[in-house]
Amino acid sequence: MAExxxxxxxxxxxxATRQVSQIYDRELAAVDLSLNEYSILRRTSxxxxxxxxxxxxxGMDRSTLSRNLKPLLDEGWLLEVRGEDARQRLLxxxxxxxxxxxxxxxxWKRAQKQIDQAFGTEAVARLHAELQALxxxxxxxxxxx
Length: 145
Description:
The chain has one domain (19-138): Winged helix-like DNA-binding domain superfamily/Winged helix DNA-binding domain (Arc Repressor Mutant, subunit A). It has seven helices and three strands, in the order H-H-E-H-H-E-E-H-H-H. A hairpin with a 6-residue loop joins strand 2 (78-82) and strand 3. The protein is mainly α. InterPro entries: ArsR-like_HTH, HTH_MarR-typ, MarR/SlyA-like, WH-like_DNA-bd_sf, WH_DNA-bd_sf.
């Protein structure tokens, strides 16, 4: 049985996150994507996104996101486009990125199914709701307004 006596919320979240990430990363490796790369492609699939908006959606700081964008831009899966304001940098999924995302989707679904089966779909839904509530209450006040 694993050690669970730590009072540290971060410890418990990070330990679980590492295990969950390994499941997704194993599945997505079949299409040469990491979970971070898949998440970025997925969150740019609907419409071009500003760098700051994408960073917020992913819960990343801009410098971490910029490092994660480089291989996706180099592969041509993401494109940089300008917004209405020429200074605004938007990220858009390219056709090859859309194809890569479509190729990756079944692998992502297999990883999600494995987690759902291990923990239970109702427990996963409750976990999602609790984690969203935690995210919302920890968001800096100026962002929450």
